[in-house]
Amino acid sequence: LHEQFILTARAKGLPPFAVLFKHALKNILLPVITLFGLYFPFLLGGALIVEVIFAWPGMGRVAYEAIIAKDLPVIMAVNFIAALLVIFGNFTADMLCKTVDPRI
Fold this sequence. Notes:
The structure is a single chain. The chain is mainly α. It contains five helices and no strands. It has helices at 4-11, 16-39, 42-54, 59-69, 72-100. Helix 2 packs antiparallel against helix 5. The radius of gyration is 21 Å and the shape is elongated.
């Protein structure tokens, strides 16, 4: 909030709401969107822990039982889905970054 373009917008007399949402938010969104895309695959890891602890049926529990039983095709399928989540998260983050800042 102490950058030159923010101070210039304030000096022009823009209201604080306009300064924050029109000028500062665009610069803040890029790292947030990138981190969202990188953390998206961790949902599968979190699902594994929660489903095993609470004995809920789901993909995390299936993965855990496959690891315990050494069921390689199921483990490979879970890894494949995790890889798809990584690709989907990165692609979504890239597309959102492009809509926020067209220069990218």
